[in-house]
Amino acid sequence: MKRRIIGILLILMITVPVLADDYLYHGSFLWNGVRAIVEKDQFLFCAFPDGIGVADLSRDFNKKKLYATLEMVEKPYRLYLCSDLLVVEDEVGKFTLVDISNPLNMVLLGSFQPPEEIVDICRMDNFLYTAMQYDGLFRYDISDPNNIIFNDSSMVGIHVTRLASSDSLLFALDDYNGVIIYNPTNADIGAPIGELLLPDQGVSLAVSGDTVYSGVSPNGMMLGSITDPQNPIYLGLIDSYIRADKIDLVPQGMVLSNGLNGFELIYGQGDSLVDQIFPIVGIWGKALVLDYHGGKHIMFADRNYGFIGYNIENPEVIEIEFPIITYASPGPITQLSFVKSRLHSIGTHNWYEIFDLADPDNPIRTGKIINPPYVPAGMCFKGDTLFLADFEFNAIFPALDRGEGDPTVFFPFFIIEDSINRPHIVPNYFPDGDLIYYYDDFGLRGTFRNDSIVEPNLFSWRFPTGVASAIFNDTIVYLNNDKGMMSILALDENFQFTFISDRTLPGRGGAMVQNDTLLYVGASILMTYSISDASTPVRLYENSESGEVNEMIQVDSWLIVAARNGIFIYDISAGRPQLLFSGGDLALHVAYDNNLIAASDGFSVKIYSLPILDTDSEVQPIPDRLMIPQITGYPNPFNPVINLRLNNFRSYGEPVVIDIFDILGRLIRQIQVGSANSGSGGILWDGKGFDGENVTSGIYFFRASQGADRAVFKAVLLK
Question: Is the pLDDT of residue 615 over 50?
Answer without folding.
Answer: no
